[in-house]
Structures are given as C-alpha cells and as structure tokens.
Amino acid sequence: MSVTPIRLFGDPVLTTKADPVVDFDAELRRLVQDLTETMQAAPGTGLAAPQIGVGLRVFTWHVDGELGHLVNPELTLSADEQFGPEGCLSLPGLTFDCRRAQSVIARGFNMYGDPVVIEGSDLLARCIQHETDHLDGVLFIDRLDTDTRKQAMKAIREADWSGLGGMPQVKVSPHGMNGFGL
Length: 182
Fold this sequence. Notes:
Blueprint: H1 26-41, E1 46-48, E2 58-63, E3 66-77, E4 81-87, E5 95-101, E6 103-109, E7 115-121, H2 122-135, H3 146-158
C-alpha cells in the first residue's frame, strides 16, 4: 500500500470510461487502500481509480470526517441543484463554479462485494458525482458553461504543471492542493 502519483489533465486514462470491478479480491482491497492513502496525502476530498492510472470503477472519499469508498456506483440524482466551487486533484490549484445535483443516492459495493447505499447532499453529493464522472471519463470542466470552460482551459494552459503554456502534457500531480481537490 502506498501513495501513488496522480495523473494530470491530458492523460488519456482520465477521459476513458473505466471497467466494472468483477473481482472483489485482495488486489481490489490494495487499490482501495492506495486510493485512500493517496487522497489523504494530496490532500483531497475524493479520488477515483483512473486518477492513479487504474481503469476500474472504484473511488474513495473523505467528506465531513467520513472516510469511505464505493465500487461500481450507480447514482440517482435529485432534481434540486447546487452551484459552487469545485476542484480536482488532476487539475491542481484550479477551482471553478460547477452545477451539480443537490443530493444523491449512490448504490454500489464495498471492497468485499457487499452491497452498500450512500445518501448524501451538499459536499458529499458533489464529491460522489465528481468521482463517478471520473469513472465515466468525464472531468468537471466538461460540465462548466461555455465561458467558464474557456477560462478553465486558459488557466490549464497557463498552469506550471501543464507544460510552459502549451498543450497539457501527461504528468503526475505535485500534490499540495490545499484541500480543494475532489
């Protein structure tokens, strides 16, 4: 178990749909532990397996003192919406206002294959939606309105980690997100 490098914007794994977990074995439990340790070291609010280069449908979260994980999530979203700041460990240092469902019911499994249901609102709902998007190859900047997305792309090009103002390069996160990453 270890802290693993986080993949940054531009890495194809971040835009590729992850495969369902079929084996609930020791390897999956190691992955959950690696995700948890990496998320906490970053520090972040959530981390999905593709962000560490693993194309499986699993993520971890740490919201309001609650640490958890979910495998093969399926979401039911509320009609009520929230609009607020969101960041990502794969886009270090960048935060933009993003629209999400106010609450969510997430059904899936724990690392042992037991069915679980997570109900959350506010930050937990935002985190679960954000991390499930990662499993579908969607980044939160894909959900921004046109003008904000243009601002985000400009900020990415100008970020120190993206490669001298050019197109983003595939690199790993330097960590140190000041708690804004999801």
